[in-house]
């Protein structure tokens, strides 16, 4: 697996985004072969991405040679790139939403694993498109309104790198990042994590952690155990990280670094590299206190789905706008997709739509006892079936009866479970 | 609407195959609840751990929490490997007993 990942990485370096795209197309074709809707979507995505790649080629050399005279032309190119990247993001977002639904319904581990690979490729495509927008001087995407917990900011960053299984999440302070910066901090971390995994042995872990400083800021650390960088190289990189971000010749080679500089500058975040004992590199990110918030209580409990009759219609009506104006439209126009009332949970997970076993009008009642206030945030109260909830009770009772019936049928007593928990009724 | 940024594969490190047999009707419970251990879990595992303090089935967990079933299975299996969650032996031997499986199917149809 690791060697396969390595070879994919090499391949990606050699051939760039096009090989990623081809790989994606092959995987996609295999899985989506007989699912017409998703397939059409994929082809649409491919066309736009190809288009993007075509337009991208002239862009890359553009900032390098003519610094003075060609300024308006550069602006235009940047605007064009940003616009195309935005359209790309819309498509990739629809693709990801589609994949989420398929993943939620998939029961077969092998098929799910293939869907995960597709998801991973699509997530990396999204990262490319977002980086393109950052480099073109635009917002990468519509900022979230609610704060995101540090754990989720970090895991979102991990989601977008190639070698994500190698990253260990260490100790993370139970705090949150303010909504308008959360995704940008994830993007910045993604580039640091990607660099750390690429520059260290393929089987060594990369650790990311987050601590609160006395000043109320947050210090994020990305540590790898590669061979490390010579002191003068670290100094040079730190110099370039602390100076005004601008595109130059080295931006082509170190695109990640350029993205980090832009995003750090935008949010007043300090980023620096250091050598790590005994070997390896530590990338540190200091988030100023005004980006830090108290963490919202962790709640993954499914809320009863409200009826949404109107939104779907408006979304469909607005689904075919003309070309989105690349300069000022930061909110991505809604794309046509099957109605999904779910949305996103506080934990960043897709909210599933399939019907609950519980009757729709009966919400899950958290246990009223105040046991849920220890430790990390506010863990959900222990589960308890509402006595009035006849459906749930029936189901649970059925299961127990079923269990008893099975024992009788087999004429054997299965292993006794360990002592029931005190909170067991 | 944005797609979620924490992807399901990142929660399970890409794993889709649980090490334990976890059918939808399999019951799980927490033998010795430890609030400190709970606090150190990732949000999804923590939610499962807290819910399973009351003996519950995989289907119930999936219905009550906003976590895809494929992720729930892998995380429960991880918790079971650390002895944090007990997987009740219901159905443990089903896979070798076709007759029993058929009887269960009949029974379920009758429910």
Number of helices of chain A: 12
* Strand segment tally of chain B: 3
What is the typical, i.e. mean, pLDDT of chain B? Answer: 88
Q: Helix/strand/pairing class of chain B, anyone?
A: mainly alpha
What's the domain count of chain B?
Answer: 1
* Cα shape of chain A: globular
- Main sheet of chain A, how many strands, which sense, barrel? 5 strands, mixed
* Total beta strands of chain A: 8
The CATH class name of the domain at 147-294 in chain A reads Alpha Beta
Structure commentary:
- The complex is a heterodimer of chains A (425) and B (111).
- Chain A has 425 residues and is an alpha+beta fold.
- Among the domains of chain A are: 106 residues, no CATH class; 148 residues, Histidine kinase-like ATPase, C-terminal domain (Heat Shock Protein 90, 2-Layer Sandwich).
- Chain A contains twelve helices and eight strands.
- In chain A, strand 6 and strand 7 form a beta hairpin.
- The radius of gyration of chain A is 25 Å and the shape is globular.
- The two termini of chain A are 46 Å apart.
- The C terminus of chain A is likely disordered.
- Chain B has one domain.
- Chain B is built from six helices and three strands.
- In chain B, helix 3 packs across helix 5.
- By secondary structure, chain B is mostly helical.
- The mean pLDDT of chain B is 88.
- In chain B, strands 2-1-3 form a three-stranded antiparallel sheet.
- Classes of the chains: A alpha+beta (425), B mainly alpha (111).
- At the A-B interface, helix 4, helix 5, helix 6 and helix 12 of A face helix 1, helix 2, helix 3, strand 2 and helix 4 of B.
- Chain A: InterPro entries: HATPase_C_sf, HATPase_dom, His_kinase_dom, TCS_sensor_his_kinase.
- Chain A: Its EC number is 2.7.13.3.
- Chain A: This is histidine kinase.
- Chain A: One of its GO terms (biological process) is phosphorelay signal transduction system.
């Amino acid at each position: 697996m690791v060697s396969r990942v390595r070879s994919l990485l090499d391949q990606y370096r050699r051939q760039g985004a096009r090989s990623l795209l081809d790989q994606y197309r092959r995987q996609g074709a295999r899985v989506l072969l007989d699912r017409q809707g998703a397939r059409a979507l994929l082809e649409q995505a491919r066309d736009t991405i190809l288009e993007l790649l075509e337009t991208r080629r002239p862009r890359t050399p553009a900032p390098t040679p003519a610094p003075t005279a060609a300024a308006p032309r550069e602006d235009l190119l940047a605007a064009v790139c940003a616009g195309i990247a935005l359209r790309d993001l819309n498509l990739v977002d629809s693709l990801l939403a589609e994949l989420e639904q398929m993943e939620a319904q998939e029961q077969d581990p092998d098929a799910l694993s293939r869907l995960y690979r597709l998801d991973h490729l699509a997530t990396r495509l999204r990262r490319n498109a977002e980086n393109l927008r950052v480099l073109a001087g635009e917002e990468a995407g519509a900022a979230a309104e609610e704060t995101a917990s540090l754990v989720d900011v970090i895991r979102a960053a991990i989601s977008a790198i190639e070698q994500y299984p190698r990253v260990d999440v260490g100790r993370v302070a139970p705090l949150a990042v303010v909504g308008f910066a959360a995704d940008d901090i994830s993007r910045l971390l993604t580039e640091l994590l990607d660099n750390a995994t690429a520059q260290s042995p393929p089987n060594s872990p990369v650790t990311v952690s987050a601590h609160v400083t006395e000043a109320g800021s947050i210090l994020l650390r990305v540590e790898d155990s590669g061979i490390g960088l010579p002191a003068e190289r670290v100094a040079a990189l730190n110099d370039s990280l602390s100076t005004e971000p601008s595109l130059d010749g080295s931006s082509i080679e170190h695109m990640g670094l350029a993205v980090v500089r832009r995003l750090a500058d935008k949010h007043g975040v300090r980023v620096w590299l250091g050598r790590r004992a005994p070997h390896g590199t530590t990338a540190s990110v200091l988030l100023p206190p005004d980006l830090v918030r108290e963490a919202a209580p962790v709640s993954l409990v499914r809320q009863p789905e409200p009826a949404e009759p109107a939104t779907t219609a408006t979304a469909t009506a607005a689904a075919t706008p003309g070309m989105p104006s690349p300069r000022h439209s930061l909110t991505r126009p809604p794309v046509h997709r099957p109605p999904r009332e779910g949305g996103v949970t506080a934990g960043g997970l897709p909210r599933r739509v399939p019907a609950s076993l519980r009757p729709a009008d009966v919400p899950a009642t958290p246990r009223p006892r105040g046991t849920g206030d220890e430790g990390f945030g506010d863990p959900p109260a222990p589960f308890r079936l509402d006595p009035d909830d006849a459906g749930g009770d029936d189901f649970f009772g059925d299961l127990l009866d079923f269990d008893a019936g099975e024992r009788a049928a087999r004429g054997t007593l299965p292993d006794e479970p360990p002592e029931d928990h005190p909170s067991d009724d | 609407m944005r797609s979620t940024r924490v992807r399901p594969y990142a929660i399970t490190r890409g794993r889709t195959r649980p090490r334990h047999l976890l059918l939808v009707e399999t019951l799980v419970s927490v033998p010795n609840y430890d609030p400190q251990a709970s606090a150190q879990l990732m949000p999804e595992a923590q939610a499962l751990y807290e819910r399973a303090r009351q003996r519950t089935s995989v289907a119930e967990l999936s219905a009550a929490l906003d976590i895809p079933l494929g992720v729930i299975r892998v995380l429960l299996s991880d918790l079971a490997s650390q002895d944090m969650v007990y997987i009740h032996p219901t159905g443990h031997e089903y896979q070798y007993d076709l007759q029993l499986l058929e009887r269960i199917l009949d029974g379920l149809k009758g429910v």
